[in-house]
Design brief:
The complex is a heterotetramer, with two copies of chain A (383 residues) and two copies of chain B (376 residues). With 383 residues, chain A is of the alpha+beta class. Chain A has helices spanning 2-5, 27-34, 38-57, 60-72, 186-206, 216-228, 235-238, 245-252, 258-286, 298-317, 333-340, 351-362; strands at 77-80, 96-99, 103-114, 121-127, 138-144, 150-155, 164-175, 179-180. Helix content of chain A is 42%, strand content 14%. In chain B, the strands form two sheets. In chain B, strands 1, 2, 3, 4, 5, 6 and 7 form a seven-stranded mixed beta sheet that branches. Chain B starts with 6 loop residues before the first helix and ends with a helix.
Chain lengths: 383, 376, 383, 376
């Protein structure tokens, strides 16, 4: 079947269901996945992150055991990083993994976990050493989600959807051989997962809103995912749906209003410029040129576009903008946009964190004096 | 203008604030927003008997407390701060003001006492979908047939329109336009031909209804055809009340953002110690205080029957709307992921801000109205 | 003459040319001074700051020597606090005062000094101890500006005016008896000067732009100051001159343009709300009520108003907005506004510092961990 | 669209950048902005002979280098980055493009070689005070008398209008309106009846002139009356060039802000380590990159003669204008008091940003134009 031909993920190594394609094709995964638009990242995306991480840090046994299940879609994965007490400060997590004879005992809580309710495996980051600086005491595991010690509770958002879960671990068990990388070496493994997550997300943004998939495998998967992904149906609305602004303006006739026209124009300028900026980054990447700043700005730009779109939608809908469901414009889609946009500047790293990253890594500006950098974790103030 | 509250007004504020804090914890708001009527009859009754809020602005001769717009706005600000679910806005502010502004003495005697006693709740039905609540938006015509005034048409965005005992509404003389030919009417809630439907809105804490009048017999309120000025003034007064409600909500949001930023620790520090958060809050404080100043000045103008009322009503509504939404958006941002969840109260205020933003018209419209009133 | 009647500054103590008026009248000074609008603060303002400071911290000899000269307008004063290396961080100043037998030797440089070119006296803050935390090693002096060791150079701004000076001290001399307050106790003395400066500035803002003075003394002084204050003629333009927006809109006829009308409306809303907020603060003060947040927002509000005004003026002037001098609208006044507004968010404390102060002092938000708070000054990194 | 520069284009950029860095330190800019002509003849001569920038976009048959709009925009960006004082924009970009767009082959042969060789400098006089540089703004009429075309009227905002050897200008057929009846002409700088006056502007680094034509004899450029399309296209191309110049300046400002924030110490820390400053810079980077993307795409559209050019020209000009001004304002703010002084270079860029903001029309006008081109 496809997985075994290597065409499923051509850039993977030959040894592992791949074709050793040059890394310049790495974006393929992202682009392909992005074909599912917002749907993709929710499920197949996370699975691909697991694959990318295992390919880089997993041992042969782990690759043998998991990669094929990922490629065929047999297994569903979730990412267990964020915690109530550590959002922006991911490395400040406090879920603990304690070594036993031949396994690890997991206790703690994770949050913002997509697909946890139907995942068989989780990529788990937990603290194994509390006496070293926070980044140096974390370990990366593959945890079996189907066990007594793991409880998954859906988390409802302000827009009514429940796309995320809280995951509670009480004496949950991870066999010793499910440790990925080295003990206390989990941070670097997590960085691989996160880097791929960013790439997927950037890829998706570059494609704009939901797009059709192509090719048999995507058709199947898309169909199968339609139900599974119901909780994520609002993701495109989170981005403000700029694609609907002009048509709505025409629909309501207010696109003749000079003031509203300015709002529409400002949105379109921002949206186009963001897409072009993403294209510049992709072209530079294709040409093998060093990444310029334009490559790091996608997420921040998306927040601006979403806010401008929500603003324009509100002006265009006028009094109707407070109506929801079947009473509202586009059967409540506009209301869903207005109630979903606030998430764009938070999910996957707040705008504040993005500003820090861009200023420090891209512009090379000085870091803030860190209160927590070199202290043993147990001495750092926390929630 | 005094630019300050009297000691009595400040004491009155404290009384209302205390009542709201005691009677309207967010658990109550969440319980009530899931109900049909959207308020608790017992709590409302207690509020009527203890503070008499329902008739604070109704003259004593009609059983009210005879206070002015300033006291009413103080109450609105405090209710807005606590997102208090009550009929005050729909019945006392909107409908009550309409009866006071449009009604002749006999009309007021006919309708206000029941409002003052808390026995009846009214609603005001003016807009027909345009969202501006002005005379131009009134298309429904009244017809005089065999001694009765009859209404046929649709009204929407009617606050508490489903739960009200009677509906104050507006129609126009056949073939009239603009402010001419505007007439106020009262329709009993159970009048034959009146159908009421709860609207699905983004803000569950304020119930809006769509009313259909199918040849409904209505009692005139004031001189039919001469209601244009009363309509204008009624909505201006309601704009000022809404502006004050909004600044109350904005202040509460800011308080919650500052509090959360003080206890939430990331990177070994309270996030409130990061300038990114700290400066946001300082900026919000400025905006909230500016909006408050405008809301208070507008309330004084309303109280003093100042000629500046229309312009100041528009100004205060627009400024409060921008401020409330901005504060709500930033408060979600400062809370991070948790601020986007259903458990967190921020979204309740965000939704109130969002629905208030469009009520009586959006900011662009109000800015334009302000300039025109100033002959600019 | 007037000074001796006590009516010059009624809130001063009877003993010192005053009438012991209640502090609730303290604003009088500010209001009166503000009657000169931008002119006032430049000269008579600074002089009044010296008076207020000496009244609180000076000894009788100093009061006797200086107060009358201030009140009669005989002496001109300047404030020598800011330095090139310490702007926002005033307490980080490095001008040194070294104790000699019967005098102090001053070496260093000050900047942003108004009126230094015609002042006879200066309020000088200098470092006398380098081995204690920065706030605790400063001393406050009255320095004679007319001496060899003091060199004053005008500092030209981007709008072409030269309202400020750089002041260089080379072995300048301050007699021992010119020390105000205690050795190393200069910071608290400086706080008095700064507090009064804020009050004057707030008073002026509350009054909006330039106003006519009333009463003989002000008439004289205004006339006399007209020439002296030429360098400060742009101060009102710094605030954006919202008072000119509507008339300019009418003048050019673009006040019919719906988009420009929105910009005008936004400005007017902001301006009115700022004035009302200042009025709320003053009324509360008059009623003896505790100051609410509204009292601390004037400076920040002024920045918003000025920016909105510059924006509106630009839209209204259209293509003409790039013309200056006699070729430009209002004989170049519009151009002067556009080139002066950037100063409003910097002079007298940047908006960033204002945000810090408001967040920490008014909202009570946590301070940043300080790199320099408790270290001996000489160990603190500096420019 | 390619969304990337070729290796050759990147090398070309480096060459121009190096030249600008070597020849145009801010001391030079300050010296030249105080002069009448506003540029250094020798440096310009060197630029012509070494890189041939003055004719980069002129076809080889007219003595030019035959490159396209992309190379011209690269040059503009680099000149903008260094605030390089030269006749490139006024003569080569504005006038040169006009001659290329409006002129017949014989006109091009008549005027372009001298431009290409660097022997002559031209200026483009179109606007008469409206500031939009469009056909509607052309009021000056031409008259045909005893075999000569004669011009009577006033033109303003003429870049380098005082120093140019010849003026390319636009007038309309008597009684024509809009794009109809537009005609291009060339007038010698010393033509009888032509008076030129240097305008007092906020940006000393770009000299603007007001020209008065008092019955001046002019040579037609192209078919008199048929110049409407050429005028439109000429200004669109110039908008794109200006947009690219602006993003160059914005980038330089951002670089200087980041650099200063890295060395300026307050409170014992580099101010760049404070989020208030750091986040400002990150935000500016985003804006600058967005504006660059638009400027580059517009340059590609100009180069490819894309039908999207008018819309993209408007978009890129508006976005670059907002970005440049925002970056200049924030760079002053980040520098603090020193940023408001004359010695500091920031104000030179601020003034260029401010004058560019209004050239060819302000952003509101360009946004509207963009929408109309997109049939919105």
């Amino acid at each position: 079947m496809l997985a075994d031909t290597g065409w499923g993920c051509p850039e993977w190594p030959k040894a592992w269901f791949g074709l050793d394609y040059p890394s310049s094709l790495a974006n393929a995964v992202a682009d392909e996945i992005s074909q599912f638009g917002a749907l993709g990242v929710a499920r197949s995306g996370v699975r691909m992150l697991a694959a990318a991480t295992l390919l880089e840090h997993g041992n042969d046994a782990q690759k043998t055991q998991f990669l094929r299940g990922i490629l065929t879609g047999k297994d569903t994965w979730c990412q267990l990083f964020s915690e109530p007490g550590s959002g922006s400060d991911l490395a400040g997590l406090t879920t603990r993994a304690d070594k036993q004879a031949d396994h690890w005992l997991i206790n703690g809580q994770k949050v913002w976990t997509t697909s946890a309710h139907h995942a068989n495996y989780g990529m788990l980051l937990a603290r194994t050493d509390w006496d070293v600086p926070k980044h140096r005491g974390l370990t990366y595991f593959v945890i079996d989600m189907e066990q007594a010690g793991v409880e998954v509770r859906p988390l409802k958002q302000m827009n009514g959807y429940a796309s995320f879960n809280e995951v509670f671990f009480t004496e949950a068990i991870v066999p010793a051989e499910r440790l990925v990388g080295k003990v206390d070496g989990g941070w670097s493994v997590a960085l691989t997962t996160l880097a791929n997550e960013r790439r997927v997300a950037d890829g998706m943004r570059a494609w704009g809103s939901v797009q059709k998939g192509e090719g048999a495998i995507f058709a199947e998967l898309a169909a199968e995912m339609k139900t599974v992904n119901e909780p994520y149906r609002w993701y495109p609305q989170r981005a403000g749906r700029p694609d609907l602004v002009v048509s709505q303006g025409r629909e309501t006739g207010v696109d003749r209003d000079p003031v509203i026209r300015q709002a529409i124009a400002e949105l379109l300028m921002l949206e186009k410029a963001s897409q072009w900026t993403a294209r510049r980054a992709r072209e530079a990447h294709k040409l093998g040129r060093p990444q310029g700043p334009e490559g790091s700005l996608g997420k921040l730009a998306a927040s601006h576009v979403a806010r401008a779109a929500a603003h324009a939608h509100t002006m265009i809908a006028g009094g109707q903008s407070l109506l929801a469901g079947e009473d509202g414009p586009l059967d409540g889609l506009i209301a869903e946009i207005l109630l979903s946009v606030p998430a764009i500047s938070i999910a996957g790293g707040t705008d504040e964190i993005q500003h820090n990253i861009i200023a420090e890594r891209v512009l090379g500006m000085p870091k803030e004096p860190r209160a927590d950098a070199d202290l043993p974790f147990r001495d750092i103030p926390r929630n | 203008m005094r630019f300050s509250f009297t000691d009595e007004q400040m004491q009155f504020r404290e009384i209302v604030e205390r009542f709201v804090n005691e009677q309207s914890p967010s658990s109550e708001v969440r319980r009530l927003m899931a109900t049909e009527t959207g308020y608790d009859a017992d709590v409302w009754r207690r509020l009527c008997t203890s503070i008499g809020l329902q008739a604070i602005h109704i003259p004593e001769e009609f059983g009210g407390q005879g206070f002015g717009a300033i006291e009413l706005c103080i109450a609105m600000e405090e209710l807005g701060r606590g997102l208090f679910c009550s009929p005050l806005f729909g019945s006392s502010v909107l409908a009550g003001t309409a009866i006071l502004e449009a009604g002749r003495t006999e009309d007021r005697e006919r309708w206000l006492p029941a409002l003052s006693s808390g026995d009846s709740l009214y609603a005001l039905a003016i807009d027909e979908g345009g969202g501006y609540w002005d005379a131009e938006g009134v298309i429904m015509q009244y017809e005089r047939r065999d001694g009765n005034y009859r209404l046929k048409g649709k009204k929407t965005f009617v606050v508490d329109g489903c739960s009200a005992d009677a509906i104050v509404t507006v129609a126009r003389q056949p073939r009239s336009t603009g402010a001419d030919g505007i007439a106020f009417f009262v329709v009993e809630g159970n009048a034959p031909g009146l159908s009421r439907r709860l609207l699905n809105t983004i803000d569950q804490t304020r119930k809006l209804a769509e009313l259909e009048f199918d040849d409904v017999i209505a009692e005139p309120l004031g001189e039919p055809g001469a209601g244009g000025a009363a309509l204008d003034r009624t909505i201006d007064l309601c704009r000022v009340c809404l502006a004050n409600e909004m600044v109350g909500g904005a202040q509460r949001l800011l308080d919650s953002a500052v509090e959360y930023a003080g206890i939430r620790v990331q990177f070994g520090r309270a996030i409130g110690s990061f300038q990114a958060i700290k400066h946001k809050c300082a900026d919000l404080l400025l905006r909230v205080e500016l909006a408050k100043s405008a809301a208070y000045v507008a309330a004084e103008a309303a109280d003093a029957n100042d000629v500046e009322l229309p312009a100041l009503a528009a100004l205060s509504k627009a400024l409060a709307a921008e401020t409330y939404l901005k504060t709500a958006t930033q408060t979600i941002q400062i809370h991070g992921g948790i601020g986007f969840t259903w458990e967190n109260d921020t979204h309740l205020y965000f939704k109130r801000a969002k629905s208030s933003e469009s009520m009586f018209g959006q900011s662009v419209w109000h800015r334009e109205r302000m300039l025109q009133r100033w002959q600019i």
